[in-house]
């Protein structure tokens, strides 16, 4: 067969003859080239692995280099002095791009999954055609990780550090996860809260490479399954999906909420050991009601108001069905950053169809319960002995209440209804009571189980603390409007002074809902009161650790949703180092447990088991330092134990694959063995 190289040589020969004055007319050369193409391809067939289309494109390319613009184009009449080759060049017919399945050389170096950078050995460089494509030095993965951390620490801005690490992930996936695992405590605030919120706010501005799948309600209805088939991995076990309506206390960020979903999948791998090929972040773009984003010319999402009602539900139904069809009935779906009105409702809608959970509801609730259990050696008694007041009655707050009630009911052998009587809520209008429920037509349904009899009307948190006399006070405000007015806005004049910043951010003096009077009252209610200020970012946290310790004489047990630095307590002069209450202790191991058991559904007792596993990892030394959570550096060990407890609960409830349930120690060993190992593989 006449290959493409032969055609090119013949074409160049004809062009050279024309330049030497050989008398070959331009149209004769084009006719000759056309004849050669037809002979080579047989009217569109493929010879010797070279397609007719590709060969034609090659001839045009060589002809252009030879100064012959007429082949394959309409430039025969044009003056070559006045018309450039590109203007005379006719676009070639479409062709199908393809790459080799076995990669080597430059392709291997540019593939983030298989690239080892300067760690390729001499033998690998020789046999895989990389000799000369890399500098001569060779480094171990340890040395590469040290170089990465030196560069990261050289950047003062956490957002810049975040993007530097994402760039590493785009170049060398295994090294990225090695760095994340070895430096989890240092990099957790960089790759997750609070930095990821700032990244989401400028996501459109800095967007440079897509990660995950984007599904648009404007153009992708009826095509979601086909879109999921575009993702190269066929055996995805975990999908993290967001619609960006409530991003980490920052409000509606639309498609920019994808930054959180991507960060979550990275933590599933680095902290929980789930293989990165098994994780898929997805953004359901249903528009945004953030006018600032709609007016932004750089916004990367669809510029339409948010889809709502039946159309929204139908679109989500199609998505869940497409995930099950593409990846199987046991593919886990984690909902992320959905609004209060949709979060719990969607969970209830799909609870019987797929293994689904919402980290904003289940994960936050489980880690809060873990902190309460871990603090029992200091507070005394049991979880059921506390009286709880939760400031924030949204889906997240009531999720915490429900998780605590489930645990009390399980351990005290009482009904959940009885257990709920130990828990009270304050919303923007004050204490949630039976009297309010009888007169307020707009009281949300999820608040009704917490509307207790025999409680007085209280319009502020301080009034509620004095009336209920709780021993545990939990703040979890998640809706930005509750920060501007009402019982959750803090003292008069403080909440009203908040200025909403760009894309829902906060500026100005942060409101402290737990004032000194509130904290002092808590100190009178218990010898060691529980005070959990879980709202984030830091600008809306209910109080700081220093304020809680100072107001209670250093007797409180404190946890916060934001990173906190060690400090010296003014009450007793000791160094206190509280640790952040983050669902990262829960969700990575929880997903690994579901995968380990091949679970069919998700139920609340699994999260209680996860909370107990986290609490069991807290030592006496941790409690003495003021922490109710283990060190982040231990997170892989924590995740293994969480996975074992969750998998065991799946077997116990009949929601796991068939077969006898392994014992706990065996499940821990299985979880550790299954965890993703980022060490380089040998390619020879």
Radius of gyration: 31 Å
Please bin the fraction of helical residues. 40-55%
How do the strands of the widest beta sheet line up side by side? Answer: 10-9-8-11-14-15
Low-confidence stretches: 1-27, 36-82, 493-508
Count the helices. How many?
A: 30
What's the main sheet like?
Answer: 6 strands, mixed
Shape: globular
Name a few traits of the molecule:
single chain, 684 residues, alpha/beta, six-stranded mixed β-sheet, five-stranded parallel β-sheet, 30 helices, globular, disordered N terminus
In short:
The protein is of the alpha/beta class. Helices cover 44% and strands 9% of the residues. The chain is globular.
Notes on the structure:
The chain is of the alpha/beta class. The protein has 30 helices and 17 strands. The strands form five sheets. It has a six-stranded mixed β-sheet with strand order 10-9-8-11-14-15, sandwiched between helices. Strands 3-5-4-6-7 form a five-stranded parallel β-sheet, sandwiched between helices. It has a two-stranded antiparallel sheet with strand order 1-2. Strand 16 and strand 17 form a beta hairpin. Mean pLDDT is about 85; it is low at about 1-25, about 35-80 and about 495-510.
How is the topology of this model organized?
Elements: H1 4-19, H2 26-41, E1 46-47, E2 50-51, H3 52-65, H4 85-88, H5 105-109, H6 122-127, H7 141-153, H8 158-171, H9 173-182, H10 184-191, H11 195-201, H12 203-206, E3 213-216, H13 224-229, E4 238-242, H14 258-270, E5 279-285, H15 291-294, H16 309-327, E6 332-336, H17 340-350, E7 356-358, H18 359-374, H19 376-379, E8 388-391, H20 395-412, H21 416-420, E9 423-427, E10 430-431, H22 434-439, H23 461-468, E11 472-475, E12 499-500, E13 506-507, H24 516-525, E14 530-533, H25 545-551, E15 557-560, E16 567-568, E17 575-576, H26 587-597, H27 604-616, H28 620-624, H29 635-652, H30 664-674
Parallel strand pairs: 3-5, 4-5, 4-6, 6-7, 8-9, 8-11, 11-14, 14-15
Antiparallel strand pairs: 1-2, 9-10, 12-13, 16-17
Helix pairs in contact: 1-2, 1-3, 2-3, 7-9, 8-9, 11-14, 18-20, 18-27, 23-24, 26-29, 27-29, 29-30
């Amino acid at each position: 067969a006449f290959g493409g190289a032969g055609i090119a040589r013949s074409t160049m020969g004809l062009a050279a003859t024309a330049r030497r004055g050989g008398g070959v007319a331009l149209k004769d050369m084009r006719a000759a080239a056309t004849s050669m193409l037809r002979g080579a391809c047989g009217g569109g067939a493929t010879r010797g692995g070279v397609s007719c289309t590709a060969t034609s494109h090659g001839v045009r390319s060589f002809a252009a280099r030879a100064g012959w613009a007429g082949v394959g184009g309409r430039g025969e009449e044009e003056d070559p002095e006045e018309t450039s080759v590109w203007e005379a060049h006719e676009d070639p017919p479409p062709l199908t791009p393809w790459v080799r399945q076995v990669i080597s050389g430059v392709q291997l170096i540019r593939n983030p999954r298989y690239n080892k950078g300067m760690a390729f050995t001499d033998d690998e460089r020789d046999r895989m055609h990389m000799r000369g494509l890399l500098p001569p030095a060779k480094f171990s993965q340890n040395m590469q990780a040290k170089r990465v951390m030196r560069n990261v620490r050289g950047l003062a801005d956490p957002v810049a550090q975040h993007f530097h690490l994402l760039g590493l992930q785009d170049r060398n996936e295994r090294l990225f996860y090695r760095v994340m695992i070895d430096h989890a405590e240092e990099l957790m605030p960089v790759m997750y809260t609070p930095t990821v919120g700032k990244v989401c706010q400028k996501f459109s501005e800095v967007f440079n490479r897509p990660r995950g799948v984007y599904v648009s309600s404007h153009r992708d209805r009826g095509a979601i399954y086909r879109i999921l088939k575009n993702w190269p991995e066929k055996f995805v076990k975990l999908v993290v999906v967001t619609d960006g309506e409530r991003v980490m206390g920052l409000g509606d960020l639309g498609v920019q909420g994808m930054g959180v979903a991507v960060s979550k999948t990275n933590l599933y791998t680095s902290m929980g050991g789930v293989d990165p090929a098994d994780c898929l972040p997805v953004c359901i773009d249903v528009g945004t009601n953030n006018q600032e984003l709609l007016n932004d010319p750089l916004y990367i999402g669809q510029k339409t108001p948010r889809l709502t009602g039946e159309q929204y539900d139908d679109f989500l139904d199609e998505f869940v069905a497409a995930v099950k069809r593409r990846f199987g009935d046991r593919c886990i779906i984690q909902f992320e950053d959905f609004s209060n009105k949709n979060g719990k409702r969607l969970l209830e809608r799909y609870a019987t169809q797929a293994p689904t959970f919402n980290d904003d509801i289940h994960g936050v609730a489980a880690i809060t319960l873990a902190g309460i259990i871990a603090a029992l050696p200091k507070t005394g008694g049991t979880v059921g002995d506390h009286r709880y007041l939760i400031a924030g009655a949204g889906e997240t707050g009531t999720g915490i209440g429900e998780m605590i009630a489930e645990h009390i009911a399980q351990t005290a052998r009482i009904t959940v209804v009885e257990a709920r009587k130990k828990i009270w809520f304050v919303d923007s209008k004050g204490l949630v009571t039976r009297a309010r429920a009888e007169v307020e037509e707009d009281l949300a349904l999820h608040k009704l189980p917490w509307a207790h009899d025999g409680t007085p009307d209280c319009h502020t948190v301080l009034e509620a603390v004095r009336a209920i006399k709780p021993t545990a006070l939990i703040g979890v405000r998640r809706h930005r409007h509750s920060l501007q007015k009402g019982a959750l806005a803090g003292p008069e004049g403080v909440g009203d002074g908040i200025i909403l910043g760009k894309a829902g951010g906060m500026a100005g003096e942060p409101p402290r809902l737990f004032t000194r009077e509130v904290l002092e009252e808590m100190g009178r209610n218990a010898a060691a009161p529980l005070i959990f200020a879980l709202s984030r970012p830091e600008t809306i946290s209910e109080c700081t650790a220093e304020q809680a310790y100072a107001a209670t004489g250093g007797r409180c047990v404190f946890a916060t949703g934001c990173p906190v630095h060690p400090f010296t307590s003014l009450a007793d002069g000791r160094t206190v180092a509280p640790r952040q209450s983050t669902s990262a202790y829960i969700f990575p191991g929880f997903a690994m447990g579901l995968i380990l058991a091949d679970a069919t559904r998700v139920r609340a007792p699994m999260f209680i088991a996860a909370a107990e596993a986290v609490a069991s990892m807290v030592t006496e030394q941790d409690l003495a330092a003021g922490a109710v959570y283990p060190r982040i550096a231990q997170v892989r060990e924590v995740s293994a134990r969480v996975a074992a407890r969750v998998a065991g609960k799946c077997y116990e409830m009949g929601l796991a694959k068939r077969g006898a349930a392994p014992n706990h120690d065996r499940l821990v060993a299985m979880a550790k063995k299954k965890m993703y190992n980022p060490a380089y593989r040998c390619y020879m």
